[in-house]
Amino acid sequence: MGMFEWPIELGTTEGDYFEQIAVLVDTGASITVVPREMLERLGVQPIDREPFELADGRIVEREVGQTWVRVEGRARITQVTFGEPGDATVLGVITLEAVRLGVDPVNQRLIPVRRRFL
Prior knowledge:
With 118 residues, this protein is mainly β. It has 2 helices and 9 strands. It has a single domain, classed as Cathepsin D, subunit A, domain 1 (Beta Barrel), CATH 2.40.70.
């Protein structure tokens, strides 16, 4: 699947202020990655440190937190990774599922989806 950029907004943990950022939509990424500087500016605090596997197979550790993310007008509190220099800024599937959006890879856009429980 091809990857593409999309604008999202990151908010403070209270959800009273948001900043826009362009992210790479990547259904192979589980968690949203945002530059540390932006998360710190918004007052987001790390709550854990986790290992992540990169596309080349290397394992790195990154801090994670949670805050408001707004995509296509849909806002939810979701997990975010504190990106370090050289890390891509990525919209992961945890956030996509939280805001009920899927990926249309042919037209390179996000589309609404229904939740399922079976």
